[in-house]
Specification:
The chain is an alpha/beta fold. The protein has two domains: 63 residues, Histidine-containing Protein, Chain: A; 62 residues, Histidine-containing Protein, Chain: A (2-Layer Sandwich), CATH 3.30.1340. It contains five helices and eight strands, in the order ααββαββαββαββ. The strands form two sheets. Strands 1, 2, 3 and 4 form a four-stranded mixed beta sheet that branches. The protein is rod-shaped and about 105 Å long.
């Protein structure tokens, strides 16, 4: 090749081809990863209540699990997806959450004669009787536990 123009054009074309090839071979972007994570979570009925977000290959999982161990199952499944660098597991196991909440509620209501409580799915239902002056302190203590809902069915005497 004696023509410098042809040589220069060939080098430009070759460089452009290499750049195009390298960009096509790169790892998936966040949108592709997100799409694959959603598909993986929807394919397993046990993982339906889980939401996700992706930033720079880091997947954050959140939401509530309905069964014990589904949070670790979701994390394991998501880690297998191409392009996932790490998983930030922010999920809560609903069964564990209710147990913790129930224990805290029982500790509080034990100081109030005549008050009973049930806890299910993060909702605290109060029954029984209570003196008027005790209502506000009880409600404030229970609200501090941040239940999903506080259903007060107490009879005030």
């Amino acid at each position: 090749m004696k023509n410098p123009f042809v040589k220069k054009m060939l080098m430009i074309w070759l460089s452009a081809s290499i750049m195009l090839f390298l960009s096509a071979c790169g790892s998936p972007d966040d949108k592709d990863i997100q799409r694959n994570v959603i598909q993986e979570l929807q394919n397993n009925p046990e993982l339906k209540g889980i939401t996700s977000s992706v930033k720079e290959g880091v997947v954050t999982l959140s939401g509530n699990c309905q069964s014990a161990g589904c949070d670790s199952l979701a994390e394991t499944q998501v880690k297998k997806i191409d392009g996932v660098k790490s998983v930030n597991n922010q999920m809560q196991n609903e069964a564990t959450t209710d147990l913790t909440l129930r224990t805290s509620v029982q500790s509080i209501i034990s100081r109030y004669d005549g008050v009973q409580a049930d806890v299910a799915a993060g909702v605290v239902v109060l029954r029984g009787t209570i003196e008027k002056k005790q209502v506000d302190p009880l409600m404030n203590e229970l609200q501090a536990l941040k239940p999903k809902k506080l259903d007060n069915q107490l009879a005030v005497k």
